[in-house]
Design goal:
By secondary structure, the chain is mainly α. The chain has a domain at 101-159. The chain contains eight helices and no strands. The protein has helices at 6-15, 26-29, 32-35, 49-55, 70-79, 90-96, 98-141, 145-158. The longest helix is centred in the last third of the chain and has 44 residues, at 98-141. It starts with 5 loop residues before the first helix and ends with a helix.
Amino acid sequence: MPTQSKQAFIAARKKAGKVHPPLHDRRVWLRPEWRQRLPTVYRPLNVTMRELVRDWDASETGRSYTPYSNQLNTWYKALFNTDEKSRITAKALVENYVPTIDSDIDIVEMKQSAKVSFKAAERLRARVATRQATRQAVSERGDTRSINQDLEAEIVAML
């Protein structure tokens, strides 16, 4: 679960006149008494990393980040509802979301795979266009020997 940033936690504690550990004392922050005091917070799953950092008290990580679907975020947000009577139940999740999660994950994975394929195809088209332009220029000069050498070298490299 995401937790409030240490900076926001310290600011809130200062405002309330309460003690807090030093911001950069990693050893102290790892102690259970401070780790357990950091409140969990809702951060949407369907927004970009830039939006999370700008609007939702998140820190940028070096890891790649892919936003999730609006549908998943709706379910996730429902878990953070503080009103017990209107908060989604485990039973409702099992009945309404769990049956579709496998297909939802498959769809996301297929979309990501398609994006990778489209990017690879784009790179191949650019290489072909460059190669065709080079061949055209070389053939206009009448020097087909260099084309054959380039093709031979490329074929050898592929093997």
